[in-house]
Amino acid sequence: MDMRVINVYCNEIFNEELIAIEKWRPGPDVDQRYTYPADEINLKSPADQAAVFHPDWFNMAITEQFPNEDLPQAYGQHTNAEINSQTIDSEELLVAILSLQP
User: Fold this and answer.
1) What span, in angstroms and rounded, lies between the C-alpha atoms of 27 and 25?
2) Which of 22, 29, 82, 98 is the most buried (most CB within 10 A)?
3) Are 34 and 25 within 8 A, CB to CB?
4) Whole-angstrom Cα distance, residue 30 to residue 82?
5) How distant is the alpha carbon of residue 48 from its chain centre?
6) How far is residue 67 CA from its own chain's centroid?
7) Is residue 84 within 8 Å of residue 51, measured between CB atoms?
8) What is the per-residue pLDDT for 27?
């Protein structure tokens, strides 16, 4: 019985469809800044790609191009999720302020 449960969980967790491009990134249809920064198609050889696309390049591209605050659509959520998150943050801030009073 334990092996069957583990197999079910593994089939759900280790699923190729979960890492499909349209599943894990929002793409330019949500926000133009969410496009993949590397143009790997125009660099043919792996040596050229390795010379251009090193970790510092990706860090710089992420820092300069990607937004600082993610849209709810980036995680597949509705716009109301952002409103709910902001409401919760505001309530927590007000409770913290009130707790500081003597």
Assistant:
1) 6
2) 82
3) yes
4) 15
5) 27
6) 11
7) no
8) 58
3-state secondary structure of 1: coil
Residues 6+ positions from 66 with CB-CB distance below 8 Å: 33, 34
Backbone dihedral region of 69: left (phi > 0), alpha (psi from -120 to 50 degrees) or beta? beta
* pLDDT score at 45: 76
Q: How far apart are the first and last CA of the chain?
A: 58
User: Is residue 33 a contact partner of residue 65, using CB atoms and an 8 Å limit?
Assistant: yes
Give this prediction's pTM: 0.40
93-97: Cβ within 8 A, 24+ apart? none
- Retrieve residue 99's tokens: 């707790």
Distances (CA, A) of 36 to 22, 25, 43, 85: 12, 9, 15, 27
Please determine, for residue 88, whether its predicted confidence score (pLDDT) is greater than 80. Answer: yes
pLDDT tens-place string over residues 20-45 = 655 555 556 666 666 666 776 777 77
pLDDT at residue 23, as a whole number: 52
